[in-house]
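Discussion board: Methods & Data

I've been asked by a reviewer to show the raw model output for two of the constructs in my manuscript, not just the figures. I'm not sure how much to include, so I'm pasting the format here to get opinions. Each protein appears as its amino acid sequence followed by a line of discrete structure tokens. Is this the kind of thing reviewers expect to see in a supplement, or should I convert it first? Here is construct A:
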Amino acid sequence: MRGRLHPNGLAARASGLDRLLGPLIALAGVLLVAGWLLPIMTVERFVFLSQRVSILDGAAELWDAGRYGLFAILVGFSIAFPAFKLIVAGYLWFAGGLTDAARRRLLGVLDALGRWSMLDVFVVAVIVVAAQLSIVSDIQLHGGIYSFAAAVVLSMLVIRRLTSLAQA
């Protein structure tokens, strides 16, 4: 695989543990999709009503309820924004057709946007809190929220390392 990488790409320059950055980008992508699909919580109303909710389910429910502003925030910060960061990070890792200056600019943008990364998790936390403030008797968190949080943190770390690698 290494022989097929563009000689100007970050993947071709990587050595040691930095060679794991490509697989870590892919792992963050898998964790992100799992975070979207797996239930993040079970909401129990009263004693007999129980519903497992994923991020995608929550987005669909917001849309169906006509809460388009909250839908846009949830989709923007929990789906589009993290996916965009990983797609660009993967492109920067494997693509070699960029100049070093262009690569550094893109990584600078990703690094600056990375400061907003925890907003992804914050949006999900707000949903949990909002559900608790309604007529809810119990909320149980599930693997989806942990998978989503792990994807966000892993993408932040990978993008930070890509930035350092590009500057070397």
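Construct B, same format:
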Amino acid sequence: MDVAKILAELKSEREQIEEAILSLERLARGRTRGRGRPPSWMSEVEAPKRRGRPPGSKNKTQVAAAAPNKSIAVA
């Protein structure tokens, strides 16, 4: 076994672990909502928000209100 190769792999793993720890610490700090615009790194993490009505939520009260008017009998 090559000791230098093992050391290089362990150092790269240590760097990856440190980056993961930093990103988790940033997320933990960013959980509470503060005033103003969020930092740029937070906007990259969050998914874009959708605006407007969700699909399939049409105004169904108009359809229900229109149906009884047609069934009125004229004597």
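Answer (T.O., handling editor elsewhere):
This is acceptable in a supplement if you add a one-line summary per construct. For B, something like: Residues 26 and 61 are 46 Å apart (CA to CA).
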